[in-house]
Amino acid sequence: MATKRSFRVLDGAMGSALRDRGVRVPSSFTSVWSAASLIEAPKEVTQLHEDYIKAGADIITTNNYMVTRTALSRAGWENRIEELTVKACQYAIQARTAAGAKEVKIAGSIPPLTNSYQTRNGLEKSETEKQYKEIADIVAQYVDILLCETQPEALEASIAAKAASVHGKPVWVAFTLEDDFALDAAANKLAPVLRSGQSLEYALKNLEGINNLEAVLVNCSDPETCTLAVKEISKLISQDGNVNLDKNIEVGWYSNARPTSDAFKREKEEDGDKRPVEPEFDEKMFASQASDALANGATIVGGCCGTTPEHIKHISKLKQG
């Protein structure tokens, strides 16, 4: 008899999954990405959340990625940040209620302030702190977990986490990684690194002393790179060494189901309303990647760009061994 496995399942993509369902999702580089759906397609957003719950997700994430002042200014919506963030939270709550799944947790997205993968946001530190505080203060009123996600740079991630930490709720921080290994100068070896080129050890050290830090994750990167990063993070946290974090902090994995750099290059070159690159990993292949992540120390697994409720359904089946 197969041994049951204990882990938590995070949901999958919103933007790319909404596109798959025919919802207009404009470019994340020149427009507002899935933030448009909060106004134009609320039923579809709520239904997608509910479908992730039905697929076995233990945690769903609010659809306010790109609901930042910089991104919203592209549509002249910068003064609608509170309205749209609240809508994102409410749609997730409505989906949980409709699914009759009180046990499901809602993670409030605290996204990078400018473009995905942009390693310098161009803002003064005080302005970065102000904007992250604004987002965290809004989502904290509605959610169970504060998820600082797709963070490409260690300092910005720590600023986001500090803004989240004052609310007395679990704080999760997810780093996005270079898809190809880079030279970790400090360790003098090829290893997974942040989009900024910073080492995982450096990123973790920047999270030291942050209250309510419950999990460190990797996301929005190649599956295999994410798995190797999970292994490295688990090692850095569990061993006595240069990283001074609680050894009970969880490690999470929610990778893309496609080659990240190629997908974003294509989207940048094309009209933003067109479909992105098709996923490289089908549901079974992706679940196999998630299984590898679990074997290497992850206790939270889910999906990012290119994933759907079907991907999450196959991950959830891993609980049966």
From TrEMBL:
PROSITE patterns: HCY. SUPFAM superfamilies: Homocysteine S-methyltransferase (SSF82282). The keyword Methyltransferase applies. GO terms for biological process: methionine biosynthetic process; methylation. Binds 1 zinc ion per subunit. Residues 1-319 form the Hcy-binding domain. This is Hcy-binding domain-containing protein. Zn(2+) binds at C220, C304, C305. PANTHER family: SLR1189 PROTEIN. It comes from the Eukaryota. Its cofactor is Zn(2+). The keyword Ligase does not apply. Pfam families: S-methyl_trans. One of its GO terms (molecular function) is zinc ion binding. Keywords: Metal-binding, Methyltransferase, Transferase, Zinc.
